Amino acid sequence: MNVPVWAWAAFAAVVVIMLAIDLLAHRGAHIIGFKEAAWWSAVWVGVSLIFAVVVTFTLGGNAGVEFTTAWLLEKSLSVDNLFVFALIFGYFKVPREYQHRVLFFGVVGALIFRGIFLAAGVAIVSKFTVVLFVFAAILLYSAWKLMKDEEDSYDPSTSLAVRLLRKVIPVRDEYDGTKFFVMEAGKRVATPLLAVVVAIEAADLVFAVDSVPAVLAVSDDPFIVYSSNAFAILGLRALYFLLSGLLDKFHYLSKGLAIILGFIGVKLILQASHKVISTSIPEIPSLVSLAVIITVLAGSIILSLKRPPKEAVEHEDEDEQRSRPEQPSLGKDD
To answer: In angstroms, what CA-CA distances link 24 with 18, 21, 43, 94, 125?
Structure first.
């Protein structure tokens, strides 16, 4: 795909402007409520869809479908990140008013590292197409772990990045507003807020192991894969605050993600076989991939809401029993 320089410049300008608006709108300590999170989520989704329309009219319909598919795929895979964010915030006891600042810098770091990983992935695939089979194996293995509920649990206390940070610079135990560094006894020390950012960046690197091969199954064009990832990551903070109290309700979402990863793994195998073995082997069109992702996501969310977790149902029954007034027992004399 021949992407003009102005398209890259326009994309960069949109990202910088939106980040600046977001940063100015949330200066200092600030608690993001549900309504504000919903509004910002709508903004990020709207900007992403507008960009998809622009891509469609400037680069072609297939490019627009590939961007939308890759964006929605990365958006769905990012839900796993939200659970990890909640674990990290809980472990470090991050006050709610500081969480947006942490995620802002986490997003900036993710944009940089994802760019590096995606560029490397595109370069490797362009020279060694057979590596697509390796990427497919990674996705199928991840899908199997999700389906079997064998997903790797994340423990912030074991984060190698955080331990390395503590060796490089002392980290105090108390927060000091939104500061990352403070002076103590004439020495610069880090606050726990910096450790939280480092932990979130390290977690994103782990999730990139699934995300990068998945998006390369949709497109091998650098502009499509990076812009779709960038817009999905940019809306991740608002999505976290929107769903922070609802994550446990979507208990079938992991199964849906497993199906999506498995489907993308199969798509990648067919794509690699088409290029390496024989052109007679069919590939799965991007429009079909988009339809499958939308259907599975919608189905897993609806099923989660219609069939709440067993523990939640039992808890509701216990609450209902406690709320009922006790009936007096009738003795023999009554």
So the answer is: 10, 5, 15, 21, 39
| Nearest CA-CA partner of 44 in 6, 15, 78, 84 | 15
**pLDDT confidence tier of residue 310, bands split at 50, 70 and 90:** low
pLDDT tens-digit series, residues 119-146: 888 888 888 888 889 888 988 988 888 8
Across 7-43, b (16+ Cβ under 10 Å) vs e yields beeebeebbeebeeebeeebeeebebeeebbeebbeb
**Quick one: how far is CA 40 from the chain centroid?**
16
In order, the DSSP letters of 12-47 are HHHHHHHHHHHHHHT-SS----HHHHHHHHHHHHHH
Q: What is the pTM of this model?
A: 0.81
Sign of CA dihedral 111, 113, 118, 119: positive
Distances (CA, A) of 12 to 9, 32, 61, 178, 226: 5, 26, 22, 27, 11
Could you give the residue ranges of the DSSP H alpha helices within 26-130? 34-59, 61-77, 79-91, 96-127
Mean pLDDT lowest for which of 193-197, 237-241, 247-251?
A: 247-251
Please determine, for residue 154, whether its predicted confidence score (pLDDT) is greater than 90.
no
Place of tokens 């809980």: 90
Q: How many other β-carbons are positioned within 10 Å of the β-carbon of residue 104? A: 16
User: Does residue 1 carry a pLDDT above 80?
Assistant: no
Which residue, among 40, 47, 10, has the nearest Cα to 25 in the 3D structure? 40
Q: H or E segment at 170?
A: none
Supply the pLDDT for residue 150: 56
How far is residue 36 from each of residues 43, 87, 90, 170, 186, measured CA to CA in Å? 11, 23, 22, 36, 40
Render the burial of 230-243: b for 16+ CB within 10 Å, e for the rest: bbbbbbbbbbbbbb
